[in-house]
Design goal:
Maf protein; alpha/beta; 7 helices; 205 residues; single chain; seven-stranded mixed β-sheet
Length: 205
């Protein structure tokens, strides 16, 4: 790779959490929202294979987002990411209301679920690198009174994440055990991504 080349780094995501993670890591980048219809991609994959691996869904969506934006900015390095939550064979999507968030949390209550998080780098309209990681999270059998307090306090923010929680806030009180990388849980496997960007000389070693 030409070391004299000037890179433009793009985050193909509307996630404020992913943006903040990259900013905190010192990266300079532009945010461009992809136009991928995630519901259509997810439903098509599940319709074609009822036993689809949720990690594969996350990887395909991350790739689709990165390639969508990379097709428009072909000289840039584009980062796409996605996260899929699965619990006992069921795949969950982001709740679209506080009531839907309540249903999600009741379904996860007292159970262990998996967060499959994928990140992809695309260049010239094609994915060049991908990484998928999985974390296991066990929610405590919290009383309904706490659920009501949590939803009232968090408000509409519960619709920002697929599991209706943010570990960096009050959502941590929903859990009794967490196994996995913190950044994977937040939605971006940051350490493998940074290592790949160093290998590509996008950021300094």
């Amino acid at each position: 790779m030409d070391e004299s080349r000037t890179f433009e780094l793009i985050l193909a995501s509307g996630s404020s959490t992913r943006r903040k993670l990259l900013e905190a890591a010192g990266l300079e980048f532009t945010v461009v929202r992809p136009t991928v219809d995630e519901d259509v991609v997810r439903e098509t994959m599940m319709a074609n294979n009822e036993f689809i691996d949720p990690a594969d869904v996350a990887e395909v969506l991350a790739r689709a987002k990165a390639e969508d934006v990379s097709g428009l900015y072909r000289d840039a390095i584009v980062i796409g990411a996605d996260q899929v939550l699965a619990c006992q064979g069921q795949i969950f999507t982001k709740p679209d209301s506080v009531d839907a968030a309540r249903e999600t949390l009741m379904a996860l209550r007292g159970r262990t679920h998996q967060l499959h998080t994928a990140v992809t780098i695309a260049e010239g309209g094609e994915a060049r690198w991908a990484f998928v990681d999985t974390a296991n999270l066990t929610m405590r059998d919290f009383p309904l009174a706490f659920l009501g307090l949590y939803l009232a306090t968090a408000g509409e923010r519960v619709t920002d994440s697929v599991g209706a929680y943010q570990l960096e806030g009050l959502g941590i009180q929903l859990f009794e055990r967490i196994e996995g990388d913190y950044f994977t849980i937040l939605g971006l496997p940051l350490l493998p991504l940074l290592e790949e960007l160093r290998k590509r000389k996008v950021i300094q070693e």
